[in-house]
Specification:
Elements (H helix, E strand, L loop, with lengths): L4 E6 L3 E8 L11 E9 L1 H11 L4 E4 L1 E3 L3 H12 L8 E3 L4 E8 L5 E8 L11 H4 L2 E7 L5 H13 L3 E4 L2 H4 L3 H8 L4 E5 H7 L9 H12 L5 E5 L5 E4 L4 E4 L13 H15 L5 H18 L12 H11 L1
Parallel strand pairs: 1-4, 1-9, 2-7, 5-6, 9-10, 10-11, 11-12
Antiparallel strand pairs: 2-3, 7-8, 12-13, 13-14
């Protein structure tokens, strides 16, 4: 019997080394690391993990080093929440990627990423046979956009909704370079920084009018939904006919913002799977669920430790209707 997934996530799986520091160093400076934690990470992998933990049937497609210690950790952590790992590809030439994260006492972070094998995922590693058995295709931060574009084309041909949460590795390549990818997606989820970078926006704060004005060129490419995550302000949801700023949860304390966007995407996907249409009232609910999952995430260290359970989501989903 063929397994049907709620979502297949495509992108990078890395291992994060998180250094807790009192402050970030200045030029030619040194700071003391009070604690060093090693966790599985990578944007698409984080969203895969979160989707599975909150109760969605989830598979991950990415490339790892063959039988290196980091790849074993990635696989074992996926198995803890039942992410399907059968579609993962392996490289004999490159090791599993890693990211080095410095996290200060305010929860601000600096990330240095070595994509390793992840960036050598190819379009030959993505097949129609694999992708046809999912309700949603989710694409995330991978500097090499060729396999993501190939997956998006397959999704468009099969009439499967495609979500892109690009990350800075994609956005920094510029609008003209990634335009072909943007033309093949249905839903775009961007952080405030990604949105500002994409449009070379110089002002400190994004106004709702500024977002509306610049989103016109994105909708012209054929996408149907845009979500701009705005941190403590919440998320701005736009379609071609409606838009709304949706406020976040009220939190007593933020510990670590690592993975907040990945967690938001998982919550949004959860809502979309439960009601697979793009009516604005349903999209609004999806954003609220995304805010809920992200709000839980940032109250604990790391991108995964604060992800709520499926029972937490069921309770919230019932309350948010």
């Amino acid at each position: 019997m063929v397994k049907i997934f709620d979502v297949i996530c495509i992108g990078a799986a890395l291992v994060d080394m998180i250094a807790q520091v009192a402050r970030h160093p200045l030029d030619d400076d040194e700071v003391f690391v009070s604690d060093l934690t090693i966790l599985s990470g990578g944007a698409a992998a984080n969203t895969s993990y979160a989707c599975a933990k909150i109760g969605l049937s989830t598979a991950f497609i990415g490339k790892l080093g063959e039988r290196d210690p980091f790849s074993e950790k990635v696989i074992n952590d996926f198995k803890e929440v039942s992410v399907d790992t059968s579609l993962i590809k392996y490289s004999r030439d490159y090791t599993t990627g890693s990211a080095y994260v410095a996290l200060n006492q305010k929860g601000d972070r600096r990330i240095y990423a070595n994509s390793g094998a992840a960036n050598y995922l190819s379009k030959e590693d993505i097949s129609k046979k694999e992708l046809k058995n999912t309700k949603i295709i989710y694409l995330s931060s991978l500097q090499n956009i060729v396999p993501l574009l190939h997956a998006a084309k397959i999704g468009r041909n099969l009439n499967i909704p495609v979500i892109l949460n690009p990350g800075m590795l994609i956005i920094e390549q510029g609008f003209d370079y990634i335009k072909n990818l943007l033309e093949k997606i249905d839903i775009l989820i961007l952080s405030q920084k990604e949105f500002k970078t994409l449009f070379n926006f110089k002002e400190n704060d994004l106004s709702e009018d500024s977002i509306r004005e610049r989103s016109v060129s994105l909708f012209a490419l054929g996408m149907k939904v845009i979500v701009i995550t705005l941190g403590e302000k919440g998320a701005f949801l736009l379609t071609t006919t409606h838009d709304e700023l949706i406020h976040p949860l009220k939190l007593e304390k933020v510990i670590d913002t690592t993975g907040a966007g990945d967690a938001f995407s998982a919550g949004f996907i959860y809502g979309l799977v439960k009601n697979l249409n793009l009516k604005f009232e349903h999209l609004r609910n999806n954003v609220k669920i995304g805010n809920f999952v992200a709000g839980n995430c940032i109250q604990k260290l790391g991108a995964r430790n604060g992800i709520p359970t499926r029972n937490d989501l069921k309770t919230f989903f019932g309350q948010s209707k």
